Predict the 3D structure of the following.
Amino acid sequence: MITRWLLTALLLRPATGLAKGGFAATKPKKKTKKAPKAPKPLEPLPPGLDGVPPVSRFEVLNADGIKPQFTGAFLIEDESVADDLVKEFHGRPQLRGMVSNAANGEPVVDTSVKDSLEMSFPANDPSIAWRRYLLSLKAAMGLYLEDYPYAGAYGAFSITGRTNVQLYPPSGGYKTFHTERTGRGEPEGSRHLVFMTYLNDVTDAGADAASSLNLERDVDIGPCAIFMNRLHLPMK
């Protein structure tokens, strides 16, 4: 059967001339590349939600009373930006947070390392909640680049992958120190800056810690942290 299929395939190729010796020669048809379809333009944001949400600098000091270098903290003052992201999270499918991929590509879940529920936004997600958040993030990034202009001189950068939204249950969290720069592979190898934004208040427990910065802070709504990924900053 294999031989028959191969011969049939050869015979069905169109003969367009004769080669030396009288054998049928074939000339493969040129494949015309179809131009990629232009993405459908997004609808304008509704009136009242189309402006840039106000963002201001937010002071974070470490245990020694020093502002961590190459790290910026900014407050998204309109709490509806965070609230709307939370609503999107609850309206979409979620997965258990994974810590790595197995050799066969299957996600590895280990709640002793990371205990969370997660969903993710693609960079071009059309939802109003995501687009308003991007406006806030862009404003925060502008303030960061005022403080650290060489971060902008590195070259053009943007969000190309998916952005995770993570829900940590009571006693959950990312329980071990880790970094966002994990190797030379992509997209990790090209990560330039890291951003994370707190979407709710936690008054009874819970904090983020950065070991090399001697920094630990409680979680409250609105702050957006940006730091250079090339620092290999261990966090949990």
